[in-house]
Amino acid sequence: MCFKSDDNGGTSYVASGPDDMLEFLNHQEKEGEKPDFELQHFVQGLEISTEIWFDGVDMTPPINHTFEKKQLMNDDIGPSSGCTGNVVWACTQTYCRICEEGIKRFIPMLHQQGYRGPIDLNTIVNDNGVFGLEWTPRFGFDSFPALMEMMTEGVGDTLEKYCRGERMTKFPMRETGFGAALRVTIPPYPFEREGEALAPQGIAIRELVRADRPHAYFYNVLLDPEGQLRSSGASGAIAAFTGFGDSIIDAMGKCEEIARRVDIQSKQYRTDLGRVFRESYEKFLQIRGDSTESRSDSNLAVETSVR
Questions:
Q1: Listed residue (298, 306, 240) closest to 270, CA to CA
Q2: 3-state secondary structure of 291
Q3: pLDDT at 205 over 80
Q4: Residues above pLDDT 70, as percent of the chain
Q5: What is the mean pLDDT of the chain?
Q6: Burial of 105: CB neighbours in 10 Å, binned 0-12, 13-18, 19+
Q7: What is the pLDDT of residue 10?
Q8: Which of 171, 180, 232, 306 has a CB 3.0–4.6 Å from the CB of 60, allowing a cystine?
Q9: DSSP state, 246?
Q10: Are 213 and 270 in contact (CB under 8 A)?
């Protein structure tokens, strides 16, 4: 089973069995943590997110996909964090079963509600279907910094068009290549509690150059009176460093180059995400279902109802 807290700052936990889940729940209660939660059945498969940008009437192509990792250390060892890294790319094929059986089924509801802006459905996909995990009707951490590497116009200009209700024929993003983001943190991240400033203040952030600025999405940082960039406390999340490349390895390599060079006391980041995301992308190519012959009547009905 999987424990999913309704508290935005709460814990997610994948249990190894019933006894493990009971022990986890008892520990939560002893620690005074009693959020509303869901228990979900564990499903083996590829975890992938699908995001659309909706203009109030219909989605704006292209859709984009995201892989994310939350475990703090290489090889998915260690505690889960808010995020350790992402890779984003455009979904441009004519038919993708992950889209058709997942987020596209909800387009009539979004139209009915007059929803505008980005909305993401995180799923597990295997041969048996597309299983929804959670919605993200907001900018995703750190998928949005990665998406910014793919965008071909300013974020502010794009948001204004959606907020004004303009009909959009195309979302302004590259249709080839990959955007990536790598989160750099300091201890005690990820063991902060919401609303508590546990991370140290005043840790210097050095060796960034002007050319890095478009590729640095800062979190808990400040400029001191001398103009030195420093940690500001709160959580230990310092920044997501981003990059674009023709391949996943290339995009993540650009993120890692900045992460290696930046001088921060006790910095933390993963060094295996290029390989990990490339392996996930190879699985994605196997299961996305390019053949139009695999379309069902229900999938076609969803598309027709929107038109």
A1: 240
A2: coil
A3: yes
A4: 90
A5: 89
A6: middle
A7: 63
A8: 171
A9: S
A10: no
**Angle subtended by helix axes 273-287 and 248-261, to nearest 10:** 160
Report strand pairing: 216-218 vs 201-206.
unpaired
Q: What is the per-residue pLDDT across 257-296, written as a single tens digit (0 to 9) for each?
A: 999 999 999 999 999 999 999 999 999 998 886 543 333 3
Q: How far is CA 81 from CA 183, 192, 230, 235, in A?
A: 10, 10, 22, 11
Cβ atoms 175, 92 nearer than 8 A: yes
Query: Which CA distances in Å does 155 have to 45, 161, 162, 173, 268?
Result: 33, 10, 11, 11, 29
Cis before 190? omega within 30: yes
Answer for the pair 70, 80: CB distance below 8 angstroms, yes or no.
Answer: yes
The reply to whether omega before 297 is within 30° of 0 (cis) is no
Distance between CA atoms of 218 and 298, rounded to whole angstroms? 43
Cis geometry, peptide bond prior to residue 142 (ω within 30 degrees of 0): yes
| Whether the bond into 187 is cis, omega within 30 of 0 | no
Q: Which helix (H) or strand (E) segment is 179 a member of?
A: strand 178-185
Tokens representing 164?
């004004």
Backbone angles phi, psi at 263, to 5 degrees: -100, 105
Per-residue DSSP letter, 262: S
The pair phi, psi for residue 209, each rounded to 5°, is -115, 165
Provide the whole-model pTM.
0.87
